[in-house]
Every structure is written in structure tokens, then in C-alpha cells.
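User: C-alpha cells for this one?
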Amino acid sequence: MIILGIESSCDETAAAVLVDGTLRSNVVAGQDVHAQWGGVVPELASRAHQEHIVPVVEAALRAAGVDRHDLSAIAFTQGPGLIGALLVGTCFARSMAQALSIPLLGVDHMQAHILAHFIRDGVERPTPEFPFLNLTVSGGHTLLVLVRSPLDMEVLGTTLDDAAGEAFDKGAKVLGLPYPGGPLVDKHALGGDPRKYVLPMPQITGADMSFSGVKTAFNNLVQRGVQADPAFTTRELPHLCASLQQSIVDILLRKVHRTARRTGVRHVAMSGGVSANSALRSQFQAMADREGWQAHVPPLAYCTDNGAMIAMAGHFLLEAGRTVGLDAVPHTR
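Assistant:
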């Protein structure tokens, strides 16, 4: 079973080859063009995907030592994501599948992030046992998902407004840090006091979350500081980054803790781009250790958007016979 996975939901063009469930190649092309605009520009993203997709797919096949005629199926990100970006990957996958007369697999991007835990790449590491609770955190989504099987998932909670990744990036922008700001907040926070500036903790019932209040409070904090001292952000940058980061981590982990206890799961997992954050990873593991839970976080290469997770999701879809037709269209939500 040889599957080509294609990812093009936002600003990374990625392709990977999976052979009988084992990863053979994983190629990702980023898009530096967005840095000057302080965020992803949809039209520029779709143009970059058009430039990158052919060489990225060719590189993935070459690295895997696989000829395109050997492929069993093609998996592609059907959504959610930016419509222009998704269209590039969808149209390419449909055309290639039609030319090769092989099945087409439409993958949900958020499910693929969860299934990244099951990527086999030659390195031994434990995988979550079903059912498990997965915190899926990225720039556009924040979800708490009960995973009963690879294709049976239930969303228990989501953000009511902004995603955790967006809160990181917008906070970084307020501090004058370039895009993408999340990794830079993580870097500067290492030298700061995470409790120096206390931001409000949203009181949302159930498993749902909210980050708009934290984002607004942080913006107001910085603006007040700059009015009193123009050098405020420069002088306090490590403390501001650490405080913003800790507030976001507190919100996420409180919801994971309560929901895991309520559902009775013994395995908790985390995936998505924000799961690369060092404070979130370490505190997530520490919480699991205190509770006697097994914690699972994918390697950094599989946290951000990548083709390997799309191919892995496609593997499970093909096993279940859940293919899509050549008239498949992308969905943004």
C-alpha cells in the first residue's frame, strides 16, 4: 500500500510517501513571502503553492524511491483551510489520480493532525491507546477531541473565538516581533518570569475555550506600558513573552485536565503547530505524570503542517474503503 500525501491548507506545500504504513519521505516547502505582511496573505499563499507543488511532489517520490506508477492512492487535504490554497492541492491530486487511475482520499486536516501520532518512521515510540483525549492546537483551530478509533472522533470542546496559535501570533505582533511570532515568543520567554504579568483567565463552562480576552488584555498591558515608558517592550520583552505564553498554556491545560478526568481516559495526547511550544510540551508532560496518565506528543517535524500526517490519515481511509470521487471539492471549514 503506497500512498502519496499532499498538504496545502495554508502556507506550507508538503508531500510525503507512506509504504505499508511506514514513512519513506516527507518534504515541506515554506513560504517566506508572508513575513513582510505580518501574517498569511491568502492570494500569495495560493500562488506559492502553484510554484511549489510539482517540485515538492517530485522530491517526495524521489526521496522515497517510488515511481508515480507504483502509487496505490493519493491523499490530499480537503479542508479546512484557505480556499485558494486548498484548491491547488485538490486540483493537483484529482488530476494525478485520474491520470494514474488510482483512488483519491479526501483528508480532514484536523483529523490528520491527530493521526500524526501513528506515523512510523523507524524510530520506536509509544502510540496512544484508544480511547484517548487529544488537544489539537494550531494557528487556526483549538480543539479537544475524544478519539475512539482512527476514523471515530468526537469534538468535546473548541475555542469560542480566537485559536491559541492566533493569540500567540497577535501577541507577538503587539510586541513588534516578526511573523510567525509564536516560536519567537517561546524563545524570548525562556529568560522571563511567567507570573510577572497576570492576564485574565476566561471562565468558560464545559470543554470550550476562549482566547480573545487574553489577547485584548495583553494588548492593553503593552499599550499602557509603552505610554508610561517608550522602552517598555524592549526592557520587559522576556517577561511579557513568558506571561503571555503562560496564560495561554494555563487555559489549555486546565481544559485538558478537567476533560480527561470527566471522560476517564488514561492516555492524553497533543498535536498541531502550537504543540511545538516548549512550555506547553513540558507542562503537558508534567500534568500527565502527576495524574498517572500516558502523554503523547508527536516529534516536532509532525507537529506543524506536513504531508506525512495526510498520508497517514489516507492510509486509514484506504483501509476502510473511504475514497472520494474526482468531483471532490475543498471545504474551508
